[in-house]
Amino acid sequence: MTPLERLPTREEFDQALLAFVKPLEDALIADCTRRIAYGQDEELRRAAATTLLYEQWKAHQAAFDIESVQLVLGDPAIVSAWNSASRSVKWISGASAIERATQSLLDTKIVSLDYPADWIEPTIRQTLDERTALKTKWCVMTMAALREYFHDEGAVSRMNAARNRLDELQSAVRSGASAIREITQMVIDENASPTVLSDDAAEEAEGRIVRSLHLKMAQLNKTLPPTIRQGETARERLLMYRMCVAHGGLFRSQKPTAVYELLHARGVRTLDRRNVDRACQSFATRTKTRGPSEYRRLIEQIRQTSAGAARR
Question: Which domain of life is it from (predicted)?
Fold first, then answer.
């Protein structure tokens, strides 16, 4: 593809992303789900699974032909970034990939008729998302990162503010936990003289709050980026973080060379290779925990945003 001499607008990015992640029609999913869930003939079940995979493949191929997609993915730097990121991938044959994806769908068969087929429709949809081709996933995540870079100038400030607020709330919760412990230990006699007692219940009361805090923080840390240092390269650092997360989930590596190549894309500020390597290394721990779930989180966000816009 030959890149055109302009950057995609925000609306073009939205159109391109939605073309890739728009779910298959409800009627098609419902029909194929019933056949997969309850079918007794294995060939008919397999045919239903293959239908879903083929329809999704057609939708993705059509998305690659959209002009706004070509505006982004046709950039030589984007092509080089993909080639670098995928260089070490051990590719399997198309037939093997289809067979694995088909089997994943067939594994959702319901043995008991007591369960309605629509109970497993979400599982079918999730399996289709998970079995999306590696390159398609990378393209979607790359376009989302570039959309944010070009058209969301307040992203870094907003995320840093959220991180700072979260730190404040953590401190408040810990103070509250200590207060709960003290209250639980305290006994006030008839003269209103407080006496502090040693009480296992007080320790447990504090512990429950702290454990709940740790659990919630673990969930939030999977979605909230780290604090991005403010400065003239803040947007580039956020872009690098997004790509490190993408690569961590898809390739189990930050792929700093691919990130460096991507920074040569049209309209993106290029950074020194050593700075790119250091940034990727600083993101390593977080991308290991967040990367595997990032594609699923991203496409759900795109779908919800699109659905919300349609309702307005």
Answer: Bacteria
Are the CB atoms for 160 and 230 separated by under 8 Å? Answer: yes
Beta bridge partners of 196: 186
Note the pLDDT tens digit of each residue in 248-268.
Answer: 999 999 999 999 999 999 999
At 195-246, the pLDDT tens digits run 555 567 777 777 787 788 777 777 777 667 777 888 889 999 999 999 999 9
Distance, in Å, from the CA atom of 129 to the CA atom of 275, rounded to the nearest integer, reads: 34
Q: State whether 124 and 175 are in the same domain.
A: no
**Six token digits for residue 267:** 């309209």
Tell me 262's DSSP state: H
Measure Cα distances from 247 to 71, 88, 94, 110, 300 in Å: 22, 12, 22, 35, 19
Full 3-state SS string of 76-144: HHHHHHHHHHCCCCCCCCHHHHHHHHHHHHHCCCCCCCCCCHHHCHHHHHHHHHHCCCHHHHHHHHHHH
Domains in the chain: how many in total? Answer: 3
Determine how many CB atoms are found less than 10 A away from the CB of residue 2: 7
Q: Does the model's pTM come out above 0.85?
A: no
Same domain for 194 and 68, yes or no, is no
